[in-house]
Amino acid sequence: MALGTFSGGASTAHLTPRPDKSLFAGNYLSIDGNDFNFTKQFLPEVYEKEVERFGNRSISGFLRMVGAEMPMASDEVVWAEQGRIHVAFDDCSLAANSDAATNKITFASSANQDYVNIGDTVIISKGGKTTKCYVQAKPSATTITAVPYKADQLMDAAAGGWDNTGATTGISLFVYGSEYGKGSKDVGNSINAKSEFYKNSPVIIRDKYSVNGSDTAQIGWVEVTTEIGTSGYLWYLKSEHEARIRFEDQLEMVMIEAEKAAHSFTADPGAGSNSFTVKGSEGMFAAIESRGLVYSDADFGGSDAADGLADFDKILQELDKQGAIEENMLFLNRGVSLAIDNMLAAQNSYGAGGTSYGVFDNSEDMALNLGFSGFRRGSYDFYKTDWKYLNDSTTRGLVKDVEGVFVPAGVSTVYDQILGKNIQRPFLHVRYRASEADDRRMKSWITGSVGGNYTSDEDAMNVHFLSERCLCVQGANNFILLKSGDGVIGDAD
Fold first, then answer.
1. Which of 33, 44, 212, 291 lies 20 to 30 A from 334 at CA?
2. What per-residue confidence (pLDDT) applies to 331?
3. What is the mean pLDDT of the chain?
């Protein structure tokens, strides 16, 4: 069945930039073009209050819901995350003819081979073959002799019948233990704990709103309103407050979308600005694509409910390989949210409403008041809500390549290089520059000679906004980014 299409006069962009401080006809409302004008004696029926046709236009709130904000006093934040505790590789090989006869396993590097000792017991696997072996020797810097327990040679049927006529690559290997004789004393190389170090740098975000002194005294006939409570008949108040709302939204969008520069380039200096080397920062999407999981082309609400559930179970299986964090929050666009509703509804009559609320004390009212609908699958609890940022036609709803994100609930324990100790932080949190001299979390100041603040002879009020911040995505391997694409999961480490 073909789907319907939309048409009409609703547009995407509703802002008009004015680089010059001049009067423009588009800045004012007019009753010309109809039967009423000010040369006639009849009074038109006027609606004084502005119609809020887009509802709440702000898209911020995501980071306030899932993260925290903390000050920092450096140009860089560095942290360490735990590595894997067990020894495993997925890039081993039987590199040449007859290797299956001599039981020779080749590693990608000598550094990898150092993790495996003589006397270790290992499991090797490729496709349908899985064989348990004893590490008998290390004949070279990149090879081991892995004798199967059930046969003399890997090529024997009892050992899995590994190919002895050519190279076999992509063999998985992990150490599950060891075996030594009585009175043994040399157990090979020791293994040092492995940590992964990550860093991010804050970016300076700025904006400004300007109005000349005359227009601050210009009364209007439309009562203006904004999302932060502005009201009255002075149009410049609306513009100033909308500039503030837009800047606060951009603070969150930068934390979500920021990208580190992969090459060196310089910003051209603007009025009052110096030329500088653009560095960028690592936002949430970039961190997940680099260190987390990306699931493409999910079809949770397909024609067959079992297929949708199979897609979801594939995600669960990948979470099992990572931190296996029990509680996760799902921030989704409308399409994926409805698809999951359909998937759950097909399982039982209560699925779409969400009958298990977990951390909400199993209170339906509490869960729904926060905009979440909860459900449980396997050993995981999920709390689903719509993310306005992915639906709004002036943000990610315009691009549509990101469909949602899985955010683990709880905190991570990491070693903070600046503080010099282990710390517990939400997996997702913002660090902003601050000191006793200056708090740059969200600065706002006024210059000019209008508004009671006389800083220059300019007959204008200039409202400046500034923040310096970055996002820390810790334990990114537990995050999942849903994207439109080819139906695969990109592996984390």
1. 291
2. 92
3. 81
Question: Residue 165 corresponds to which tokens in the numbers above?
Answer: 């006529």
- What is residue 392's DSSP assignment? -
The three-point CA angle 81-82-83 to 5° equals 120
- End-to-end distance of the chain based on CA atoms, in angstroms? 42
448: CB partners within 8 A, 6+ apart: 210, 455, 456, 458, 459, 460, 461, 462
**Do 478 and 407 meet the contact criterion of CB atoms below 8 Å apart?**
no
Six token digits for residue 358 = 């977990």
Tokens of 207: 């904006």
Q: State both tokens at 118.
A: 């003589």
Mean pLDDT of 362-375: 57
Question: What pTM was computed for the model?
Answer: 0.79
d(CA 86, CA 282): 29
421 vs 393, higher pLDDT: 393
Q: 278 with 258: CB under 8 angstroms?
A: no
What are φ and ψ of residue 344, in 5° steps? -70, -40
Cα dihedral 242/331/322/425 (nearest 10): 40
Read off the tokens for 385: 């809500």
Note the pLDDT of residue 294: 93
224 neighbors 237 (Cβ within 8 angstroms): yes
Q: How far does CA 434 lie from the centroid of its chain?
A: 25
Q: Which amino acid is at 442?
A: M
Has residue 353 got a pLDDT over 70? no
Please state, in angstroms and rounded to a whole number, the distance separating the CA atoms of residues 282 and 109.
Answer: 30
Please tell me the distance from the alpha carbon of residue 148 to that of residue 124, in angstroms, as a whole number.
10
Cβ atoms of 216 and 234 closer than 8 Å:
yes
Whether the CB-CB separation of 51 and 69 falls below 8 Å is answered with no
pLDDT tens digits, one per residue of 40-71: 666 667 776 777 777 777 778 788 777 788 88
- 259 torsion bin: left (phi>0), alpha (psi -120 to 50), beta (else): beta
What long-range pairs does 243-247 form, CB within 8 A, spacing at least 24? 243/207, 243/208, 243/209, 243/463, 243/465, 244/209, 244/444, 244/463, 244/465, 245/57, 245/58, 246/207, 247/205, 247/207, 247/465
DSSP string, 318-337: HHHHTT--SEEEEEE-HHHH
């999961």: which residue's tokens? 489
